[in-house]
Design brief:
alpha/beta, Molybdenum Cofactor Biosythetic Enzyme, Chain A, six-stranded mixed beta sheet, 7 helices
């Protein structure tokens, strides 16, 4: 593994934000959080798209396969509404699902709102990329990333992605003692 710059995909899924009806707050919130958490070099690959399952799947495939992102985080379209299809799109493009991410995010969100049980956030692996679905509200994005991100760098290690280092005063990544840092 090299110390190359990690590429991270940020996908906002929203009919209204993608049409310009309102400002995308979720995408910038995810990027700001990563800016505080990561100390290793990384660059953002951002997309703003409508709630269309085919387009979501195509965007996820592009970010994983063509753009070489080691991590793709999505925001929005995870609820029970008819047009909320990000979990279905994520499942359609992933080879392995990682249900623990969604379980932990819902558990954390329940501390703040009883409607967290309506969230269908999930995560999965496509090739060498971890895809995580986050809620749409910036404060909920923060809560969920705080809960799950300690496991993300090691997960990316296991799928042969770049070595991500975190600012331990903001978010301490967990790696087992036997996990070796690349030279």
């Amino acid at each position: 593994m090299s110390a190359a710059t990690a590429r991270i995909g940020f996908v906002t899924v929203s009919d209204r934000a993608s049409s310009g009806e309102y400002e995308d707050l979720g995408g910038p919130a995810m990027q700001a959080w990563m800016g505080k958490a990561l100390t290793s070099p990384w660059e953002a690959v951002a997309r703003l798209i409508p709630d269309e399952q085919d387009q979501i799947e195509a965007t996820l495939r592009e970010l994983c396969d063509q753009e070489g992102c080691c991590l793709v985080v999505t925001t929005g379209s995870t609820g029970p509404a008819l047009r909320d299809v990000v979990p279905e799109a994520t499942e359609a493009v992933c080879q392995k699902m990682m249900p623990g991410f969604g379980e932990l995010m819902r558990q954390e969100s329940l501390k703040f709102v009883p409607t967290a049980i309506l969230s269908r956030q999930t995560a999965g692996i496509r090739g060498h990329t971890l895809i995580i679905n986050l809620p749409g509200k910036p404060s909920a994005i923060d809560d969920c990333l705080n809960a799950v991100f300690p496991a993300v760098p090691y997960c990316i290690d296991l799928i042969e992605g770049p070595y991500l280092e975190t600012d331990e005063t903001f978010c301490k990544a967990f790696r087992p003692k036997h996990a070796r840092r690349p030279e």
